Amino acid sequence: MNEFKKFISKGNVIEIAVGLIMATYFGAIVKSLVNDILMPPIGILLGGIDFSAFKIVIQPGVAESVKGAGDSIAEVAIYYGVFINTIITFLIVSFAIFMVVKVYNKMKEKMEKKAEAPITPPEPTKEEVLLTEIRDLLKK
Question: In this structure, which CATH number among 3.90.1640.30, 2.60.40.10, 1.10.1200.120, 3.40.50.1000 belongs to the domain 2-139?
């Protein structure tokens, strides 16, 4: 149990959990962006098409029978319009992640260059120069 507590208390686990939660809600935001903001105007531009309504009906649904026995059959269909929306959502999320990773890599590269740059020592002050000269004279 102590080993588990040590594992959970490490920062990496918390960072992963926060990243997962953020990614989940980022995905929900992008899905809403595609379905509610992007696809309606695209549909209008294409002649009033609603991609989410595109489907291939395999078995039509049947409403309750006339006798009221409650025998209704749900429609069986392939909703390829929803699939198109999902592909567009995926492309937007992929592009956003690409941009984040690109910015991260540039920042990381700059930090590495800073770390690799030779650090020039500051020039000695007048007092230090004077003390160095006195030391050298005393050595002679």
Answer: 1.10.1200.120
Checking if the pLDDT of 41 tops 80, the result is: yes
Burial status of residue 51 (CB atoms within 10 A of its CB: 0-12, 13-18, 19 or more): buried
Decide if 83 contacts 58 (C-beta within 8 A).
no
Interval 3-16: pLDDT, tens: 877 776 776 777 78
Strand bridging mode 76-78 / 56-59: antiparallel
112 contacts: CB under 8 Å, gap ≥ 6: none
Q: How far is CA 34 from CA 1, 23, 46, 87, in A?
A: 45, 16, 16, 10
